[in-house]
Amino acid sequence: MTSRAKQWLEQIHQLPLTKKIRIMNVCGGHERTISHAGLRSVLPETIELIPGPGCPVCVCPEEDIYTAIQLALNEPVTLVTFGDMLRVPVNVPHAEIRTMEQARAAGADIRAIASPTEAVKLAHDMPYRQLVFFAAGFETTMAPVAAMVAEGLPDNLLLLNAGRLTWPAVAMLLASESAGFDALIAPGHVSAVMGSEQWQFVVDQYSIATAVAGFTADSLLAALYSTLRQLLDGRLFLDNAYPEVVTPGGNVTAKKLLHEVFDIDNANWRGIGEIPASGYALKSQFDLHNARKQFALINDASRKHAGTMPAGCDCARVVLGKIYPNQCKLYGLSCKPRQPVGPCMVSDEGACRIWWANGVREQAKIA
Q1: Is the distance from CB of 134 to CB of 85 less than 8 angstroms?
Q2: Antiparallel, parallel or unpaired: β 21-27 and 183-187
Q3: How would DSSP label each residue in 282-338?
Q4: Number of other residues whose CB lies within 10 A of the CB of residue 366
Q5: Rounded CA gap, 79 and 73, in Å?
Q6: 58-165+251-297 and 19-54+170-240 share a CATH fold
Q7: Which of 21, 28, 194, 305 is the most exposed place for a label (fewest CB within 10 A)?
Q8: Rounded mean pLDDT for each run of 10 residues along the chain, 367 residues in total
Q9: DSSP strand E in the chain: where?
Q10: 187 neighbors 196 (Cβ within 8 angstroms)
Q11: Does the model's pTM come out above 0.85?
Q12: The 21-27 sheet, strands edge to edge
């Protein structure tokens, strides 16, 4: 822990905290830093840090993953996607192919990429082959995807898009009868793209102390201190503990590209259901590159009811901050990183995977 982080921690311990304060951190990157740095073990016992819905792999619709698998198995295409997606299971019998990794082992041409530019390069390198880029992610991922589309896609590259906006999920939680938290740590990278003011509604509409944080322990502790002081002083506002990256207005170019390439539509979140105005959908002028418009099997009505987590998996409640990862009855038993049952144990941004990687190997004892 840096000296600056220690200073913030000392200031937090000096605060007169007399009652339990529940603070949700939206971003999977925040949860990774919190767990890796052991912040829960060094903060006052009155502070409870709750992992939130900030894992795009965890909330990617099951039916979209199923569609990607079926495209790769049944169409003459090369499917490319981000590496975390390969091991996310869908709800089919164990005798059937349940992940893109299994589909690849069965002969499908599926490749992991790290950025949209790799998809474009591969399409140029393979002009004889139809490529489908399965893109799942939040604003920070969809901005470069939008840039890729705006620059002009190769004729043989299609996009199977599963992009989501972050703030509508937080708004949905706050609008519920049991939001369950007193303060919010907003995601730094999303705010860098969209602007810090995107989170002003949390303060204005719900009177929740809010601070934007980066991904170091000192930035997170600074944001925690800010929200705690806001609550103690009774003076709520949107603070920015990541000013070196996050500014009001955000990245104007990135936002312009997102607006030019995508419409905003209602969208399904796995295990949660449909959230209004939470999904990125390719505008109609890009239909020739929209995999949803080019393959009939994508419109298979038999998958429209899908979206739940696997039987026994509590990943949805983990994502919503209702339980901690090790309170899921499958955690560490049938669900482990080598053999994940739900998506929260797959992704590096999934709370279950993060907790496991940082040494939490036993289920919580429920009184």
Answers
A1: yes
A2: parallel
A3: E-GGGGGGBHHHH-GGGG-GGGTT--PPPTT--HHHHHTTSS-GGGSTTBTTTBBTT
A4: 7
A5: 10
A6: yes
A7: 305
A8: 91 96 94 95 96 92 92 96 93 89 97 96 97 97 97 97 95 82 96 97 96 96 98 97 96 98 95 93 97 81 64 90 94 93 92 95 77
A9: 21-27, 47-54, 77-82, 110-113, 130-137, 157-163, 183-187, 209-213, 238-240, 262-269, 273-282
A10: no
A11: yes
A12: 47-54, 21-27, 183-187, 209-213, 238-240
Residue 13, classified by CB atoms within 10 Å of its CB into exposed (0-12), middle (13-18) or buried (19+), is exposed
The two three-digit tokens of residue 256, written as one number = 């312009």
| Class of CATH domain 19-54+170-240 | alpha beta
CATH topology (fold) of 58-165+251-297:
Rossmann fold (3.40.50)
Domain segments of the chain as ranges: 19-54+170-240, 58-165+251-297, 315-357
Max CA distance (Å), the chain: 67
Tally of CB atoms within 10 A around 91: 17
